[in-house]
Amino acid sequence: MTFSTGSLPQSVAVGNFDNDTRLDIVVANSNDNSVSVLLGYGNGSFQNQMTFSTGSYPYSVAVGDFNNDIRLDIVVANYGSNDVSVLLRFIIIGFMNRITLTAGHGSRPRSVVIADFNNDSRMDVALSNSGSYTIAIFLGDGNYSFSNLTTYSTGSTPMSIAVADFNNDSRSDIVFANYNSQTVSIFLGYGNGCFTNQSIYSTGPDSSPYFVAVGDFDNDTAIDIVVITRGANNLGIFLGYGNGTFSNVTLMPMGYGSNPFCVLLGDFNNDRKLDFAVANKGTDSLSMFLQTC
């Protein structure tokens, strides 16, 4: 089944926007400077899109409750306007005029995540800024507003960002993929909105890591990392030791010309092990990796 969106959809997230226990979809439309919201019927089909304005060239979208009203809001990283749009939801399906958070001149944000970085039960925002080689942290006040950004230096051209607790201290940590440095980097959180200096792990020569995700792949209760390397057409896995450090990368070839760009995690065969679904731009295909051990 296909459903219409705006022009050049780049990123998608899911959530229950109308509190009807059915999952809905939000899509970032880069060429339209908008997001589309498609409300679900609960049977696999969706209503026609509703569109809402963002900044210029929205590239990544995520959802969370930023004002503690038990309604999901939308946050969008705008690559073209070097900022973030936060769209707060009405009680009737719709979104208020957006709040704009400036990421800095030439920052070129590519990916956005939501987490509570300072343990105050309020949602915060983290960005990977591909143009300024930084991550940006905006701490949420829980009342429609955010702190001024705090930035941390990364490798060259951070593209994708993910959040998990890598050292079992109940604090949110960050991993991101550095496209032009051929690395992934880890920031361990102190639980107060601040982070350690980055730890760096190689993804291999000419690998161009593009997308990163996290999960416990070997069922040892320690969070692991999976990365898509577009330059080498590989899937890379870093196994976590549970103390904030990781193994060297294990590479799984995707095939010449596959040009993978995204990986999603899930237990696709109900064996209580996380599997990988990889989207390949070069071959217009989906590759499934089912764990066997």
From TrEMBL:
<dbReference type="InterPro" id="IPR013517">
    <property type="entry name" value="FG-GAP"/>
</dbReference>
<keyword id="KW-0732">Signal</keyword>
<dbReference type="Pfam" id="PF13517">
    <property type="entry name" value="FG-GAP_3"/>
</dbReference>
<dbReference type="InterPro" id="IPR028994">
    <property type="entry name" value="Integrin_alpha_N"/>
</dbReference>
<protein>
    <recommendedName>
        <fullName>VCBS repeat-containing protein</fullName>
    </recommendedName>
</protein>
